[in-house]
Amino acid sequence: MSAGDQQTLTRGVQLSAAAFTYQHPGRPHPAISGLDLDVAPGERVLLAGASGSGKSTLLHAVAGVLHDEDAACGGSLLLDGRSPDATRGRAGLVQQEPESQVMLSRVGDDVAFSCENLAVPPEEIPARVSQALKAVGLGALRDDHPTAHLSGGQKQRLALAGVLAMRPGLLLLDEPTAHLDPQGRLQVREAVLNVCRATGATLIVVEHQLQTWVEHVDTLLVVEPGGGLRHCVPAQEIHQDEKLRAALIAAGLWVPGHDPVAQLPAWRPSPPNHSQPLLSAAGLDVHRRRPKKHRLGAVAPRPALSGVDIRLRESSATGITGPNGAGKSTLLLTLAGLLEPHGGILTAATVLKSDPSGGLGDSPHLWRAADLSSRIGTVFQEPEHQFVRSTVAGELRLSAQAARRPGTAEPLFTDGEVTARVDTLLTRLGIAHLSEVNPFTLSGGEKRRLSLGTALAAGPQLLMLDEPTFGQDAHTFAELIGLLREHLTSGGSIVAVTHDQALLRALHAEEFAVTAADPEESAPSEPARPRGMGPLLSSAHNASWLGRRNPVGKLAALLLITAALIATIDAVSAAVVTAACFALLPAAGIRLGTFLRRIWIFAAASAAAVWGAALAAEESGSVLMNLGVTTVSTGSLELGLALGARAFAIVLPSVLVFSTTDPTDLADALAQQLRLPARFVLGALAALRLLGLLAQHWTTLGHARRARGLRRQFLSQSFGLLVQAIRMATRLAVAMESRGFGAGERTWARAASFSGADALVLIGGAAIAAAATGTAFAAGTWNLVWT
Amino acid sequence: MPHSAAPSWRHRTWSVSEIVVASTLAVAAGVIFWGWNLSYHAVSTLFLAYPPAASLVAGMWLFPAVLGALIIRKPGAAVYCEMVAAAVSAILGSQWGLGVLLSGFLQGMGAELVLLVFIYRRYSVDVAVLAGAAAGVAGGINENWIASYYQYDAAGTWVHIAGFTLSGAIIAGVLPWMAVRGLAAAGVLGPLRSRRAHTEGLFRAGGPRK
């Protein structure tokens, strides 16, 4: 064993619970009640139980991240005889969703974060970081590799490295592979097992898919809903003990050797009535972004997938399979009429259009939302994206009501028909008892069925599903198969993007395998920032002279220049600042063309400022234009020009500074040098990393509304975004806290320094501010604004 | 018993989840601003006809202050959310450069003062409307007299400030209040003080513990 391994070797934690009970505030029942449990140091435990049986709550309690003021809890829960709050860093938690476990934008920083929170001496941190990255198989990555470029599986291993850098004695994994493709799943499992072998840490892993872990753990623990422990047995018993197997199957778990498809009633797809496909694509090119009306010089984005030929027939299912990032979902959304094709032909058959007036175009993308939803229904990976009403019945009703007769404003269904459809669906989906419940509060499986219901309520013949069985338990799986088979039997057609072979078998689906167009495209890239979201901050490190300067120095310089501009309304000082900014472009490493592309929109805004003042400022001098109610005079026009020039000049230094400043460096400097509270600075920094992701949610929320038959709905889209933002933030906060964030002293792996060159930036800023003011004075245009 | 008695400091300082939720709300606000810019051109039409009236939609830029305050329900939430939202705008490229930080601070303070008057115990619709309106007044004062982005004549100035205030009361008052009730009903405010906002009456006092 090498010296490096010796260092990572920690004593496994001994965990004991006695009559432990925890009730979330405002919930009628405890999540855990009367739990007795003993886990020996170094023991590996697979924790299983039906959905909603308090498994995540238990892991959170052990990780020491549950401390709500109003929660009711009792009994005891001890790690090596001490309370979880008092053993910060001894237990490390990895949750299921990869995105909300990355805190910082560079790989090295993200791992170092937990060490800093535990106040590990800075000189010790780099060794811990590289050891941890090596242990999870990410040793080949450079410290400044952008975390946004990692795949889901790599992100989960990065989270594991972050936990590992704390040298914990207990690893808590909450369905760590539920969001991953098969390859990522294996990589994460191997990394976990290696770490356990190398460190001797105790392991508790929660998982629905028992076969992923059961061969690699010592003990199988089964908890019952709202209660304590039901089984605590050696893991191998799962192969022999029939009663245990039956109990696990009844709890909806995926038990090795048990095929839920085989338990379903026999079913054969019925032969189609028409030989013609409902929807066919020939040479289709797809891309997330809308094909732009290209401005001159702009290059068309390369399609995510090109030359796709596919035919979708009645009564049959098609499974789109392939590696993550190959463009499967993009293809699905294009077929669904939610994204505009970039090339090739997409043709809906007359049967699908069922439009006697003949007004509907061939490509579904051209249809109105109200015509689309009654022909092609789409079910998104995240059901919550589709919810727009406050009750379950309301959601179904809305879908049925939104459908229209082609080309008219007449509803497709009468009021009576709407009610009948809603009632039938509530029963078919098994959610009749929940009809008045808020959709967001349903369980995962209920949400999944409701999202399918919202598509079915408008009566589409073609159903598009994005990963419909992802992360679902075996009960929900079986119920979904039942519903989808009914749809096929009634002459419908289904397309599903999926990794799930059981789903393909159950529906007798034809497989349409997509391969990555080229390795670069298949690499999971940063969530595409939608157009117009001009990112001044690049995640790539800016290596220019200005880019290497201390952010606080730059900020202070920016502040001085901005103050000098705000103090006066005159074109001369604005011109001086503008000239200085253009002169500084080489120092910032920004090309003139790039800079102009970033600022032209602000020139338009200053033109608006000119117009505003010219029209509505006090009249003075001679009147140039008499508009009846108001006039444009020489005086007001002059004032407007000065205001416009000032507005334009204010933007430029800020664009220059923010284009050359890395957010992480900025946060480091704000917390270390300006002594702003680290909790708030790092909280804001971690949230900022979610920007691209939230923008992606916004776009998906828009697609989901069209798929529901609704036109653009700004308020409902905003509400949907807030829900996702808070959900993500809550998970992110748990991840941060489980890595020791938020209490006590912390250290900084990288000390922010202030050099002579940084002082020069500050002096330069002061000089520009002074030059602007001085020149304006000399020219006699300086005009203090507060007089 | 690990968490029986919450230490008293937790009642005053912000928890990690409060900090992260408030920060994320501000970032989400940045995305909503951007969605608004792409979708709506009402502003430019108003602006062309009578520039001072464009402030009727300026409340859009104030909603993070009241939304953050109603969700977090602790001192400083309005200023913090509005400042982070302003910083996000600055980073994405704002028309006013670093000046947005000043606007963010003053507008946030406007809302914060109203909540202070109610000693952080009332989060009802009337308080939300007052807070939104106060943020609007602060924004109007800043844009006409402090940062002075506009130099309208007397009538124009008053129309601008009145429009800002009205817009703040509705877009940054009533709408955030409704949104928080919706979020509470959706059950996503679990770890926060506002988790039961949907069960509170229109005008009933919402103390920090209920």
UniProtKB/TrEMBL annotation, chain A:
Which InterPro entries does this entry report, sorted A to Z?
AAA+_ATPase, ABC/ECF_trnsptr_transmembrane, ABC_transporter-like_ATP-bd, ABC_transporter-like_CS, ABC_transpr_CbiO/EcfA_su, ECF_ABC_transporter_ATP-bd, P-loop_NTPase
- ABC transporter domain: residues covered: 13-250, 281-540
Please name the GO terms that the record assigns under molecular function: ATP binding; ATP hydrolysis activity; ATPase-coupled transmembrane transporter activity
Q: How does it sit in the membrane?
A: Multi-pass membrane protein
Keywords assigned by UniProt, alphabetized: ATP-binding, Hydrolase, Membrane, Nucleotide-binding, Transmembrane, Transmembrane helix, Transport
Q: Which CDD domains match?
A: ABC_cobalt_CbiO_domain1, EcfT
Protein family per UniProt: Belongs to the ABC transporter superfamily.
Which SMART domains does its entry note? AAA
Pfam families, sorted = ABC_tran (PF00005), CbiQ (PF02361)
Protein known as: Energy-coupling factor transport system ATP-binding protein
Superkingdom per UniProt: Bacteria
Cite the EC number: 3.6.3.-
Cross-referenced SUPFAM superfamilies, in alphabetical order? Answer: P-loop containing nucleoside triphosphate hydrolases
Mind telling me which residue stretches traverse the membrane in this protein? 555-587, 599-617, 637-659, 759-782
| Source organism per UniProt | Garicola koreensis
Compartment(s): Membrane
Q: Any one cellular component term from GO for this entry? A: ATP-binding cassette (ABC) transporter complex
TrEMBL record, chain B:
Keyword hit for Membrane:
yes
As given in the record, the signal peptide range reads none
Keywords from the UniProt entry? Membrane, Transmembrane, Transmembrane helix
Question: Which chain regions cross the lipid bilayer?
Answer: 12-36, 48-70, 127-146, 158-180
Q: Which domain of life is it from?
A: Bacteria
Its name, as the record gives it, is Energy-coupling factor transport system substrate-specific component
Originating species: Garicola koreensis
